[in-house]
Each structure stands twice: as structure tokens, then as C-alpha cells.
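Course assignment 3, question 2. Fill in each field.
Student: A.L.
Task: Predict the tertiary structure for the chain below.
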Amino acid sequence: MKRLTAVLVVLYTGLAFANSTPQQYLQDLSKLPMHERQNAVDRFLGDFPTNPVLTDSDSVLMVYVGPGRELHLVGDFTDWQPRIAMTHVPGTDLWYHAMDLPPESRLDYKFTRDGSWILDPRNPLTCTGGFGPNSELRGRDYETPAFMKTVSTSVCRLDTLHVPTPQLGGSREVVVVTPPGADGPERRYLLVHDGLEYIALADLVKALAWLSAGPAMLPICVCVPPVRRTEEYATDLQDDFGRFIVDSLIPQIEKRYGERGPWGSMGASYGGEISLYLARRYPEHFDRVAVMSPAIAPAQHQGVEVLDPASLKLYVNWGIYDIQPLIPACEGFVNILKEKGFEHMVEVKPQGHSWGFWRDSLIPALRYLYAP
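Answer field:
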């Protein structure tokens, strides 16, 4: 027995991973005597100090170190429900869980420890969403957008305007982002829903500055915030919001910056729904849309069927780990686009319903909609 124990201690010192996956190593800790497990864990943590622990396969190992009675892993891959209970190694302060994810994945997540939500202390990467920062899981083959890795010498111009909203009451603080480069009548407008979040959480300004070095004539982005988001974008106030855009916002912007032809419209989630609504309801004003993880109502399916396919160009995406009820609606909508012959681009990525995903979508969306 003493000889067997000695062999196990040598085997699980962190020097034998060539013959054992990190997950198997942790599973086999139960074969060690209780008093020796923490030392083996400490050696493991020395070899793998950060999350996620990635292997050559699609397996991702998540590790947590610390006290607790219950620990769950939650995120885009669980619909933010505490469905994954972390496995505790008795006699140690280590918890772990292994799962298979596509190597190109980028996902938001947190831990819940005894009911409290916490960031991953072993992962320095975070991504801020509408409810604050989340830890960010990057798969082995995930590529950070180029505009996030470089510093552009070009600078966008930002103007803040206060636009009256008689259709909805009060006024809106609208930010107009003009990309660098020569201006001209071919430069269009892009209406950006949840516009202030696209600036703050998706780095829209940085993306436009980086893209300005390319051949595309980038649009002037008119970033509009909602006040009663669900009602204005998707339910009772949708018609009033549409009238605000067409009767108040567009005339004021074009009076100040000039008429430039039909607009584009871009939004995520409910912002995608209102983008499609505007294109369907006001085809004379909108000729291209980018919708990211859109919540598409049946009315937009029906409306696009009667539009002239030559009148609208569309970029559509969603994530494998998106809000699950959205995915069939997106797939059905894309089928209509194909059947009717609309010019469109579709991307499905191993990401979730998050501002990190929509940030990563800016470059392909803008390049496609405004290709020279």
C-alpha cells in the first residue's frame, strides 16, 4: 500500500500531464489519501493558473478555488440559469467542471457561490454588458477583432444633439458619429438603436476609426437611445417611435448634415426588431439593415414577404448560445430572405446574447452593408 501511495504522489505532481488530461487529473485526485490532495491541487494550479484550462480537443475545463457550500457555473451556455453544478474535490478548496465548446467560442459567464454572483477570480478577462461586467471565456481559436488590438490614428467626430420627440414626449440626447475621411454625397446615414450602448459597450467609435483606413465609404452613425425600450422597439409604442424617427429625427439630421439618400438601420435584440419594422414600414427611407441576435416578431416575417427584394440589403446574425426562442424565428426569417431573393449575409457564431458578440459583429456588418 505504501508503494502504491508513493506512485500516485509522483504521478499526480503536474509532471505527467502527457499521459493524463487536466480533467482526468482532477478526477483521479480521489485516489490520493485525503491529506495529500491539497498539495496535488496546488501543483495543478501552478501549472494552470488561469481559466479556462484549454486542451487540444474541444474540452474546456473551468476551475474555482475557495470555500463554499454550493458553486454553479452560469453564462451564455446555460441561458444564465444555475444549471451547471461545479464538482468539489473533497479535502481541498478546488471545484471544477469540464464541458465541450467550439474552439472559436467567446462567451460571458459568472459563478454563483452560495447564491451570490461573482466574477471568475482566475480570469482577468471581462466583458461589460447591460448589467455590468461578466467574465469572458475565449476558446482556443477565438480571434479578437482587429480594431480591438490596434490603436487607430484616425479620430471620429462626435456631436451631441437634443432632438424633440413630440410623438413620445420630451426629447432625446442623440450622438452623431462622423467617421474620419473625406465627406461626400455618397456617405449615407446609419440609424443605430441602443446607440449609446453601441458606443460604450461595443466600441462603435473605435470600430469606425479602424475601418476608415479601408475602401468603404462609412456612414454617419446617428446613435439614438430608447426611453421605454420594450414598448418603443417592440410593442405598444412602436408606431409612435417610428413616426418620431421619420417625422422628427430624420428631417433634423438632414437639415444639419445634408440629405444623403436612404438610411440604414442597425440594432441588436429588440433593436433588431425595430430596425426591421422601420425597413418594412418606411421602405422609402431605409434600404439596408444590420440585425444582431434580433427578436423578430411575426409581423416582420409577413412584412418582408411583400417588399421588393431589390429594395433592401440585410446583415443578420445570431449566436449558437443566444436566447434559444430567438433562434427559430431568425432561421425562419432567413429562409424567407432566401426564397424571395433578398441580398443578404448571415453569420452564426459560437457566442451568446451579449454586447461582446455584437461588438465582434460590427466589422463584418459594416463592411457588408457599405462595401464599395
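Instructor remarks: Residues 1-18 have pLDDT under 50 and may be disordered. The longest strand covers residues 343-352.
Grade: pending
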